[in-house]
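Message: Study each token:
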Amino acid sequence: MPLSVEIEFSGGAELLFNKIKKHKIELPDKMGVANTWTIRDLIGWIKENLLCERPELFVQGESVRPGILVMINNIDWDLVGGLDYVINNNDTILFISTLHGG
């Protein structure tokens, strides 16, 4: 059964995603195993399926680049496992850019 997740982009990050701030997505079962998606997996999926331009401004390796805050259900991702957090059905994951031009 696919996972239903809401992904939000804010603080300018939405500009990399066609100016769309909220995305309601369904993540398919991975290799026939349900509920095995981590934030690390999600970032790769976002890069391949949602990111419209300039991936270097969002992704660095398997993570987001420094300057992007990640909140999972309104909690800093560092407090719930970071990249290894296992995504649950109906989670809300927010990416906030703190990088601004000048």
Remarks:
- The radius of gyration is 13 Å.
